[in-house]
Amino acid sequence: MQYLDVNTIAFTGIGYPMSWIELVGTVFYLWSVVLIARRKMLTWPVGIVAVVLFAALFWQIHLYSDAIEQGYYLVASVYGWWNWSRARADRSQPVPVAYSSLKSIAVTAAATAVLSVAVGAAMTRVHIWLPSAFPAPADYPWIDAATTVMSLVAMWLMARRQVESWIYWILIDVAGVWLYYVKDVKFVALLYVVLLALAVWGYVGWHRERRGAAAVRTAGRAA
After folding, report:
1. CB 174: neighbour CB atoms within 10 A?
2. Domain boundaries, the chain
3. Backbone φ, ψ for residue 92 (5° rounding)
4. Tens digit of pLDDT for each residue in 182-199?
5. What is the three-class DSSP state of 137?
6. Residue 44, exposed/middle/buried by CB under 10 A (0-12, 13-18, 19+)?
7. How far apart are CA 194 and CA 56, in angstroms?
8. How far apart are CA 137 and CA 127, in angstroms?
């Protein structure tokens, strides 16, 4: 349990004390994103390890929305693992991906906005309602809530193999770079810079795969 304490330092680099929980969580998180960009099934068990570590980290630095969302990630990861397994007809190939309909995209975006406002309002008072569970006021509750809700949506879309999930991740990563930098977990902020690059790469790769699959189906019908 000692290594789950944010004050247990692995090393100090450029004046920044790196905790073991932040270091190992970051490594596993990056690994899972690389795997999911490549549409590899191993992303899910690797991601589950990262989820557990980051839940403990965020709770300790009072980013309550981020901490709570890790429980959702755990459930979504189990669902994603199951759903991807069902979708992969050829186990030697990466899983196929798809786009949502325009109607579905519009409904998802509207729901994301409404939930972000609701969660943000709740997070501004959660330390008053539940002081034993939330001993201090949440830091940056509105942006933290918005990125949390967007992350929940993005994770659900990703578990369902939807290409537009990467657009959500790109927006989340931009906000995350700023949020974690000002919270003085600079290694996590740096992680989000890397994640932003990976999200762009993931979107391009999934988009190309989807367009390639569509072209193959069109050619097959024409033949």
Report:
1. 16
2. 2-89+101-222
3. -85, -10
4. 888 777 788 789 999 999
5. coil
6. buried
7. 22
8. 5
